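Listing 4. Sequential folding, example run.
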Amino acid sequence: MQPNRRLNEFLPIKFANGQEIKQFSKPCVSCGTMLHAKDMHGVARLVEDHIAIAAKAHCHSCGSDFGVACVINSQKQVKRVVLPRFLFSLYLRNLPPQARETAPQAQVRPFPLPEERDAREDAAAIAQMRPPVSGFQPKDIVRAEETLGRFQEKPIPAWLILDGQRFDFDRIAPDARVKEGEYLLDGCLIYRIN
């Protein structure tokens, strides 16, 4: 099954008659702002002598999301598809590569592209370099002797007393994301004010 991607990654697509679709755009159904292929995620496939598109568009102006399901013929006429977008998308994503569909977008990639891998590795490295963010830095920390278990060879205290306020254990968060009223202990244990 092909993954959903930005529609601009599928373009250009060439018909047998030499006509080529280089861009695709549609107005937002809420505010009318023109949205381009880079604002839509889904799939575009060359099926017989038509380009079939099933995508979800996101308008950056008004924030609305809406479905796009259409077919473009070799004369560049766009026809709406009556089938619900999610069903049409499922059909297109499961469709085997077609006879004249030789573009890279027709091939299912078992591994991410090098750019995708690099971006994921960079994001992980940046996340590790950031210091853990906590709502405040207490001067006095008292850990409960009662433990709830262990995580990464560290005991999980049932509660903490931070500058006189009790915080109960809430969850484990290896990504070190805390919210208001929470405290991060040992870089992965989240405690919530009681």
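-- end of first protein; second protein begins --
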Amino acid sequence: MPLIKNSALTFSAAVLLVIVQILGSSPAGANQGIGCYYIRYDIKSSNNRIVDSALVMVPADQEYRTSVFYPHRAGGGTTAVPGNSAEQSLARAQENALKKLLEQRGLKSVSSRSSVFSGKTAAMETVISYEGAFLPPIEVVEQNYSPRTESFNAVFLVRFSPIAFPDQWKWLEFKTRVKSIFQDIISLF
């Protein structure tokens, strides 16, 4: 009789482990420290001219709107500014690389607004947003300085995932909750 109970318990534990492995989407050890950063790049234009842009990056350990993180090579560059250190140039190149990666692979959304005065359109504002997430660290694959063009270029390896399209958010939230519940159950044993 005890053998049957132990077999059933072992089978149940094995099933729980398999489910947790199926629901898990990030590589082992990827979520130590700050596990995930949400990034968004907004480009604002008014009357067909770019007037502002902003890159926002915040820790997002509880971000459920991503699926699988894949490694991507992203290149960025900047012009050399006298007095800037190599670290500052590398940081600026990294920022430009993240912007390019978001433009190429991120979830794109567009919002616009027009102002009408006396029956005529006076101003039209459009904001294009690119959203994604990445897992640290961002690795520097190569970097170089070109004295001829006075530019600093670098290539980075980024584990990136675009934000899922809104119709998938409920499923991803459910999947994250189930995964969290199973991890809590397993941590009791």
